[in-house]
Amino acid sequence: MKLITPSLLLPPISLFIDLLKVDEWIIEINETFPKQTLRNRYYIATNQGIRAMIIPVKKTNGSHTITKDILLDDKENWLQYHHKTLITNYRNSAYFDYYEDDIIDIFSNYKKLYELNLAFINWIVEQLDIKINITFTNNFEKKYSTDYIDNRAKYSKYENIDLPYYRQVFIDKLGFISNLSILDLLCNLGKESKIYLKNIIK
After folding, report:
1. Where are the chain's structural domains?
2. 19 and 202 in contact (C-beta within 8 Å)?
């Protein structure tokens, strides 16, 4: 079985539940890049609630730029903001210290968005020990999973996915927040994240 999705930045936990059910993941990189989607943003929990972490991008061909040509905006100091925000909100999680250097190293080493997204995906599937063949589309695929393409206005559908409880940094203040970025799961559960995902499938 295969799954086709857009190129996504640190995707929601639900995607990785789906990935455990397939053996091939095809990533769409030939579509015209849309605004305000999970392609260049991910969601974390802060002491104020859910926060969108956005990477600013540059479109080399204006509104007609395709995903594989989208560049990271090097004029904005977004890396420092992401690093500082992750430290502030995950330093008390069980495993952030273990992953921090890898995360910042990946953020620091790419100029194109889809390359950054892929680097994170490869890192995540390695941490989760997921065996899957990952490829890119050669041409635009009109049919792919629509679960991972919506903007923030529709993000409530992700929050409404009733994933099992796990301990989160701000759970005592905010309650459990379901289906954040996979980064939230890794920082809180570490290597046990795969067991968590597999138990959902059972």
Report:
1. 2-201
2. no
CA-wise closest residue to 105 among 90, 120, 91, 92? 120
Per DSSP, the three-state class of 5 is strand
pLDDT score, position 179: 92
Q: Identity (one letter) of the amino acid at 161?
A: I
User: How many Å from the N-terminal Cα to the C-terminal Cα in the chain?
Assistant: 18
Give the integer Cα–Cα distance in Å for 17 and 199: 10
Quick one: pLDDT at residue 35? Answer: 84
Which residues, given as ranges, of the chain have pLDDT below 70? 141-160
Phi, psi of 128 (to 5 degrees): -90, -5
- Which residues, 6 or more positions from 52, have their beta carbon under 8 angstroms from its beta carbon? 41, 42, 43, 152
Residue 55, token pair as written in the block:
């990477």
